[in-house]
Amino acid sequence: xxxxxxxxxxxxxxxxxxxxxxxxxxxxxxxxxxxFHQTGNxxxxxxxxxxxxxxAQQSIYFLVKAGIYSTxxxxxxxxxxxxxxxxxxxxxxxxxxxxxxxGAKARVLSSVLVFACCFFGTAGYxxxxxxxxxxxxxxxxxxxxxTGGGPTFSRNLAMLTVILIVSxxxxxxxLTALKNVGAxxxxxxxTVGLCVAYRSIECQLGFTEQHDNDNxxxxxxxxxxxxxxxxSMKMVLDAVPLFISSYICHFNVLPIHNELRCPTSDxxxxxxxxxxxxxxxxxxxxxxxxxxxxKCTPNGEIQGNILLDFDEDDPLLLLGRMxxxxxxxxxxxxxxxxxxxxxxxxxxxxxxxxxxIAKSARxxxxxxxxxxxxxFSDDEGPNGLTEVQFEHMEVxxxxxxxxxxxxxxxxxxxxxxxxxxxxxLDEFDENRSTSRSIEQDGTDSRLxxxxxxxxxxxxxxxxxxxxxxxxxxxDLLGSSFSIMMAFIIPCGAYLKLAGRKRFFNQVxxxxxxxxxxxxxxxxxxxxxxxxxxxxxxxTANAVYNSLSANVV
Length: 552
Known about the structure:
about 550 residues, about 65% helix, mainly alpha, globular
């Protein structure tokens, strides 16, 4: 494919939806039955699920808006309305957004945060993949007596073989090319949900063996499988990270948005809503049906992975395991690519990285510009466009959006802003140089992409080979890193960047946009104020749980 076509927006709402869903819906959904069981599957759990869904959806909107604000140029008087620019890929990134909002140190922090979430998520999925393949592998190669669950040579070999097969998908330049992979992943996880629902319905109808006939304690447990409220506040603290982790997809939001064709506010809203609400419906079905299966477990409890509550020789369980293994396998690129791109952008800032990019540019028959000059060149070409057009592309993209909240509507700051507002925007422009390196961020270099993808994917796989359980890592990621990445930073960045748009929203339509801005800003403040203490309490609870487990 020609380079000019590669850099065009090719994503549709359908492909964006599947990519967002496959980033969000996966093995973590199998922990929702436990969350429903702990918090009350008849009322409180569905309520917490809907609240989490609404807040996650709003945080995605804040993330998209902050990403757009972080790539807009300060001087809007120099407009370029070439319609071809509307089709060019966006350049927003999570770390650049954080840098524009909070400074250069925030770029490093956000990069480490997103990389850690994706990297440890990849390692966790690799361990889960090995567990799902365990019955099949053990039927071929009998493990040593007394081995139990955990890593063995044959199990690790099977896991690494699957990782080897899926590795080429992690080297693709963008996520739009993986739309069919996302669709297959959703079909697989839907099959897992149907298996759980089917067995749970059989349990409720009395078609399966029930374990509540041995003593009165088990009978009480089976009766408590349907409850409206949690038995203690500790149960809520244990369950909240599970709800939040089920909606974590924010590391892929901006890359998907960068590739979405005609990213107007209406299309972005349609994309996000038609992704979040089907996921919420699926979560509700698997959560409620899985939690009701507690009636048929020996102790009336639900494990963190609902598949572990089925009999090992259940053929339906084997089907569920294989479908989950397929879902995990197809979800690997969605975790590896964001971490890969962060690593590539970090390497691209080094001298060696710049040399590799320059060599790739020459091989691709690009203009023989020095990389450092190309990154900072503003010379205009014959059509009034700069030789390096990425920044001006963002201006065209912004003017194409429908709502003035997502665009500055071709107003020149120097001509319309009051002095106080100019000072505020001058401070905002101090970090502009950090975003200009986006034009040569290194992701166009095939060599860098391959090297970074292999480094991320296989180092995570090697770690997974020596890990028998990563429950502590999941708890910490869900209670601290995920909350910060998905809610606190996007909302804080929106507050910081959108605050500098106040003047333009006030004058755009006589105050209507200003009222919208005030409502959004108030909601963002509520989310920041609410999620910071929740992150602290949830992290403390996760540490307490891990220490208690070690003592026992």
